[in-house]
Inverse folding.
């Protein structure tokens, strides 16, 4: 198999057929064999029924049903575990991915790059919330995760098999695909592309899911937040010392100065606020360590469907 394409699916029953059709059209003139692995991420609608129907009607097409919603990145990890191609690609399920450039991404990889991804110059219409979320994610990624200058890897790329084999060694419950790629290689090519308008529906990323994704990024691949807490502590300590010196000098210079409780309460609230933020940050790391020790699975596969075959998946103990 030359190419495996992973599509994480969530509430995409109305879009997924068009996405698969676009992939077929993009690869029609290419001399390569490919498979499509659609992963249903616990969708509450009829998404699995649709991808199940697609998988049963085509060769080299698979429908993977996760037992519960695990998140887009975990769904992609599930797909990676079933991929057999020498090259592995990912694309989104909403039609925003410009799949027509897959051959160009493959060409870049064949030039010697380990990963090829689009650099979006134009993006589809998005809400202010999503624009803000994207900017925050980019800023967080640039600060937290070491990377080549100007390199951002979206959830649409083509990678060599050795990169994916390295990625799936990560079996902890909080995968972050870009971080895993950058942990494996910096040999990444970008080509200019545009992001299409969403075919139908709205993004599945709520504020809670966006925050969880950011937390996955910086708690799994960086200790900079812990170092930042040290800076907070030092700044607060210096500030407290300066305020203390100021109060003492004021009392010595002017014995009539009435020291009220307002300034004391303000300082206490500030200091306790900093302490709670730092403790919360440490607690987030400790909590995730606890969940990792307890081997919380990235995903649980209920079943896998392909043409003329449906079975419960026991592939490598589900490679969770």
């Amino acid at each position: 198999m030359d190419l495996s394409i992973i599509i994480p699916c969530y509430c995409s029953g109305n879009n997924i057929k068009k996405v698969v059709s676009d992939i077929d059209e993009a690869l029609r003139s290419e001399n390569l064999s490919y498979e499509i692995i659609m992963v249903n991420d616990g969708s509450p609608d009829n998404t699995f029924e649709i991808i199940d129907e697609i998988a049963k009607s085509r060769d080299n097409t698979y429908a993977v049903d996760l037992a519960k919603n695990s998140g887009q990145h975990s769904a992609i990890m599930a797909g990676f575990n079933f991929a057999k191609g020498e090259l592995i690609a990912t694309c989104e399920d909403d039609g925003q991915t410009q799949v027509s450039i897959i051959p160009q991404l493959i060409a870049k990889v064949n030039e010697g790059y380990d990963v090829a991804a689009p650099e979006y110059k134009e993006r589809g219409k998005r809400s202010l919330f999503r624009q803000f979320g994207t900017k925050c994610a980019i800023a967080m990624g640039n600060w937290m995760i070491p990377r080549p200058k100007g390199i951002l890897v979206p959830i649409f790329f083509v990678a060599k098999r050795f990169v994916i084999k390295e990625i799936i060694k990560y079996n902890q419950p909080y995968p972050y695909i870009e971080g895993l790629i950058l942990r494996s290689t910096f040999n990444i090519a970008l080509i200019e592309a545009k992001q299409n308008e969403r075919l139908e529906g709205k993004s599945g990323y709520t504020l809670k899911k966006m925050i969880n994704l950011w937390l996955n990024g910086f708690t799994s691949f960086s200790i900079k937040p812990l170092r930042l807490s040290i800076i907070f502590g030092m700044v607060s300590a210096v500030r407290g010392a300066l305020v203390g010196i100021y109060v003492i000098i004021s009392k010595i210079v002017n014995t009539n100065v009435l020291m009220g409780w307002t300034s004391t309460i303000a300082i206490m609230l500030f200091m306790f606020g900093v302490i709670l933020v730092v403790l919360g940050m440490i607690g987030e790391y400790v909590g995730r360590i606890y969940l990792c020790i307890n081997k919380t699975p990235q995903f649980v596969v209920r079943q896998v469907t392909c043409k003329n075959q449906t079975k419960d998946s026991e592939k490598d103990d589900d490679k969770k």
